[in-house]
Amino acid sequence: MREFWLGLISGVLLTAVTGWYVVVGRKTQPVREAQTAVGTALHRAVDTVEARLEAFELRGKDIKEDLERTGQVIRYAVRAAGAAVQDATSDARITAAIKAKLVADRELSAWDVHVSTTDGVVTLSGRVATHEQVGRAMLVALETAGVREVRSTIQVKP
Length: 158
Known about the structure:
Layout: H1 2-23, H2 29-55, H3 60-70, E1 73-76, H4 88-104, E2 113-118, E3 121-128, H5 131-142, E4 149-152, E5 155-156
Parallel strand pairs: 3-4, 3-5
Antiparallel strand pairs: 1-4, 2-3
Helix pairs in contact: 3-5
């Protein structure tokens, strides 16, 4: 019985605090400033991703052109001279790192994009809904440590 009353009181308090925030708290100056700061940071992050996609020529139209011309998309990662020779363990690490990034990316499905790595050359395959998703998957791979080249045979199937 004691747990019931404790739960009821907790629920009432939580409802009261939520109600206060919705009616009063959101309108306070610090909350509005925080919302503005978060919005600005989000726009900057989106702009940064767009700039990187453009730099690697990974926008939807670039991917579509490459797929129509050759059936695959290949991009080379920029690396400093004297990069270490890749081995089997680093290939497995690269593949795992890319898959983890795909899982974390809201716009991509790790189940739809298959990743394999040999000597630092990453091959992406599978199916996605848009050419932009192909570019995004390639960008994820290109920005992974140890990657020398990314090849994509991902098919676009809406």
